[in-house]
């Protein structure tokens, strides 16, 4: 999938580089990910990508800058429910130099269109830590709407924070 400034590519183990491992070891980059509780090696991430991209229930795309062919993050459509036609979506811009530039919003829009048009899903859902303002804004700008909050649901730096639930439905 090709957008204005980025393209999304289904990740394969061969695409996993040291910079990806570095993101997964950067406490600030992964502060809102559930994967932050484990340390990852190159082999761990390659194995994860191989297991995750089954082409049925989960799709992990790399987010690449068109101009430089540089991998800056990932977006996942996962946990697909084929009966009710919905899935979860999550995004990581691992390259912190790219934060706040709209790449997350562009990737969310592209993945949403892929989910609706290619996978024939009806709805995408995301859960966002309430203090993850960047992610919340990216989803709002991508056309998602807030549908609820789970109070004190996620542990963040030894304090519980709300999880905001957002969704987007196929028109």
CATH superfamily of the domain at 6-122: Gcn5-related N-acetyltransferase (GNAT)
Strand content: 35-45%
Radius of gyration: 15 Å
- Give the second-level CATH assignment, the architecture of the domain at 6-122: 3-Layer(aba) Sandwich
Going by helix content, strand content and strand pairing, the class is alpha+beta
The largest sheet, given as strand count, sense and whether it forms a barrel, is: 7 strands, mixed
What is the topology, as strand order, of the major beta sheet?
1-2-3-4-5-7-6
Order of helices and strands: EHHEEEHEHEE
> With helices defined by DSSP (H or I, 4 residues minimum), what is the helix count?
4
Mass-distribution shape? globular
Number of strands: 7
Low-confidence segments: none
Tell me the distance between the termini: 21 Å
Mean of residue pLDDT values: 94
- Helix fraction, binned, reads 10-25%
